[in-house]
Design a protein that fits this description.
about 350 residues; 4 domains; mainly beta; 1 helix; about 5% helix; six-stranded mixed beta sheet; Jelly Rolls; rod-shaped
């Protein structure tokens, strides 16, 4: 072959690169070959000429980064001047989209829209097939925007500032890739007070992470409850007919005395149980039940008459969705007119 003029005319197999004068005779000017090799090295790390956006774009062979101008949607990248393994950085000079396909594989398998000033990194996997390796949204960094990886959302999502105001909607087409921070935002940046997450269907913040690292749910949707002053029991059975103190998420039935777990998680449940009798030495057994099985028990024989005794019983337990918790009087015997009540039954989903 003659003195190469473009890098793609070279072979990845070293022995196949045998420069000649063009007429088949060995090259007499070593300097020409070295100049070509040095040029290719420099071209591979330089910025190439601009590429106008079009349905199919063709990156020149010279250069490792290019600016794409215009707003036309891009559906393919040509391999005419490229080779397998070639990696290219595109700076997007205009707002345009890349349509995801088997030959133009975008991050997350979703078509991507870039704003002017954004960047993306691409690699040729095989002839005519290019894959996006990464993307950033550098255009807004100077104004306080944090670039995020691709957001996979449903119909829409919104970001909520600590003061409760709402940022712009992120569309399901994933055209937005930024979490924009303005001077009044608080998203765990220096001086921020909290990071808030909110469901777009709700007007309240679901979760908050404070600048001290504390996670809590200020919206009152974390399942938790407290029932007080149940009906007295004189026979074995479930304590019922509570007066509700509170019931966040409405999972506790005060009439039946049963709390139903809305989701699988780690729960804490606790009860304060009172026993009394007018005669000597009554005997009681009470328990917190998960479904129909006792998980935490208290058994006692009262030593005095006409006295009310209070006992606390609690459990930290993993439960599945639809599991139930209740307080159950298992045994009541002896003495005169023994009775038992639950002064407080409460619980909460921890996580």
């Amino acid at each position: 072959m003659g003195i190469p003029s473009t890098i793609e005319s070279l072979s990845a197999t070293i022995g196949s690169n045998d420069p000649t004068e063009g007429d088949g005779t060995p090259m007499t000017s070593v300097n020409d070959g070295l100049r070509a090799a040095y040029g290719f090295l420099r071209q591979s790390v330089s910025s190439g000429s601009d590429i106008a956006s079009a349905s199919t774009i063709t990156p020149p062979s010279n250069g490792s980064s290019f600016t794409i101008t215009g707003t036309t949607t891009i559906t393919s990248i040509s391999s005419t001047n490229s080779w397998n393994g070639r990696t290219i950085v595109f700076r997007h000079g205009g707002a345009h989209s890349f349509t995801n396909s088997a030959s133009l594989v975008c991050l997350g398998g979703a078509s991507t829209t870039f704003a002017a000033g954004d960047f993306s990194l691409w690699r040729q996997q095989s002839s005519g097939v290019w894959e996006m390796l990464a993307s950033s949204v550098a255009s807004n960094l100077s104004s306080g925007t944090i670039p995020l990886a691709r957001l996979n959302v449903g119909t829409s999502a919104q970001f909520i500032r600590a003061d409760g105001t709402v940022t712009a909607t992120v569309a399901a087409t994933l055209t937005a890739q930024n979490l924009t921070l303005t001077s009044s935002d608080s998203y765990l940046i220096p001086g921020a007070t909290a990071f808030n997450l909110r469901n777009t269907a709700s007007s309240s913040t679901n979760w908050r992470v404070t600048d001290g690292g504390i996670i809590h749910n200020p919206s009152g949707t974390q399942p938790s409850f407290a029932g007080v002053a149940s009906a007295a029991r004189t026979t074995a059975g479930t304590y019922t007919n509570y007066t509700e103190s509170f019931d966040q998420n409405s999972n506790f039935n005060p009439t039946t005395g049963v709390f139903t777990c809305p989701i699988t998680g780690l729960y804490f449940v606790s009860a304060t149980i009172e026993f009394s009798c007018s005669g000597a030495t009554p005997y009681f057994i009470a328990q917190i039940r998960q479904n129909a099985t006792g998980i935490s028990n208290i058994s006692t024989t009262l030593s005095a008459t006409s006295t009310t005794y209070s006992y606390n019983v609690n459990a930290l337990v993993r439960a599945a969705a639809t599991d139930t918790f209740s307080v159950y009087l298992d045994t009541i015997s002896g003495g005169t007119s023994p009775t038992s009540t639950v002064s407080r039954f409460n619980g909460s989903l921890l996580f």
